[in-house]
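Need DONS protein's 3D structure for a figure. Predict it.
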Amino acid sequence: AASAVPGYSPGFKKPPATLRLKRKRLRRSEPTAAAAPPLCGAALRAPSAPARRNPFSSLENAPRAAGTPQARERDRRPPPPAGGSPSGAPFWQLLETVCEDKPARRAEPTEGTDILALAEDPHLPVAVPEVPSSPRHEFPADWSIKTRLLFMSSQPFTWAEHLKAQEEAQGFAQHCRATETNLPQSIQEPKLSTELRCAFQQSLVYWLHPSLPWLQLFPRIGADRRIAGKSSPWSQDEALQQVLMSDWSVSFTSLYNLLKAKLCPYFYVCTYQFTVLFRAAGLAGSGVITAVISPTTRGLREAMRNEGIEFSLPLVEESRTRKRKNSEENVETEVANSLKVGSSMEDGEYVMGPALSDDEESFSWLEEMGVQDKVKKPDAISIKLHKEKHEVQMDHKPESLALVKGTNTFTLLNFLINCKSLVAVAGPQAGLPPTLLSPVAFRGGTMQTLKARSLNAKARVHLAYEDIFSLEIVGPIMPHSLHSLTMLLKAAQRGAFSAVLYTHEPTAVFNTDLGNASTALNKETVHKDLPTCGLHPKTLDQLSQCPTLGKSSIRFLEMKDYAYTWKS
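Structure prediction for DONS protein:
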């Protein structure tokens, strides 16, 4: 028997029940079986003689012996209907597998199912913590770029549908003129509010370069499969590539000049390998211009050092500080324990570890033993590679976030303009300049709008189905757009809505605290220095705060009674 073979596993490739059905013949004496239609083009056959072993079968799909656990489990199954014919049983029952490793079926949604589960995206698995934040009147700044927002409310979103031509034009004009729109706390008839509909159009506008309508230029990381097959005449034309890069350099420089003049609050540079976020002085708790790059590699960091760009790795430094603090606490604990048992230790005599920073001193123990000439020491290259092992391991990870501050950001600008590895040399993105995203207009930028559509659905609540209205926003959603939309929904939905946020993961680490918060910065200073940056004053207040989300981003946002809770 197959089960007697040593090392035989009860796993199978095909259900043995199906194999038995193929070897059975119908009993002609049973009219019910004769009248039954053929199943899947093959007649069901009843057993007439002991089945021979199929010489072409393998151990994996061989029939089980009667004494195996699988056979005993099959015996415990409910018998077929009283007709006696296997065809009387449902087809799904005949084909049911008996694999003991069969995965459990997903539980059906119940009354208490979180509305977040209804908006699950298979392309973006999000682990949402069970404990939300405490209710607040404002949610923290989220510097990550969102690819999709799904707002849900018990109130309809009809006010966001079918904008009139005049409302759309007025929204564009309000955006270009940075018009500040202040809505009441609650709007009784949102659909009839022209001010609300114009402000909605205003909040959907962003600026992009380059603009190639047949290509989706965000996100750029991991976009090869999406761009593959699209027309790219510049990929094999070096002259055209130089024209595109020259035009891109002008737009990039224009954005930086606007940022330096505090006429642009921030902008993103999205390459096929990493993303750079430039922020004006006064934002994210910093008194100087900052630029954060993620993810980085050892080669990129080495090239930046060679260009004289001073930068830091905040997450690496934070990890080192934490380890040093834990080490000091362990040392203090050991000292306290040794003093308790009567051992004495004088100040300055404790050594924290055998590791020494100097390369020559690290081999001093060989000289003490007198075998320094007999043991081959590693060369300088091996020592360098050993030291850079940890630095290489963090490549392409959030921990590789690099921070550039002050005048070094201008050096970074020139470095990125002249960096040959900024543009792919092969593949679908070959020769395509990086994407520039900005909340305000700049030279060479093209005005774009986020795509919005309203949806209606039913959700099960307390054994009944209720109407759930939703508003979907798709596109490169920057921090100011998220805050502007929530302010509009606060008034239009009467302070009650929820939102699922889909984050472009490489940008989630931009919420890391830079550790350079200036205590002198306050609201008055920020509003005095950034009055014409194009942002609403409340949005400016939010973005001027120090980031608090760390390496995560907001995944779920909910407002109840005009108070926010969120999950990250």
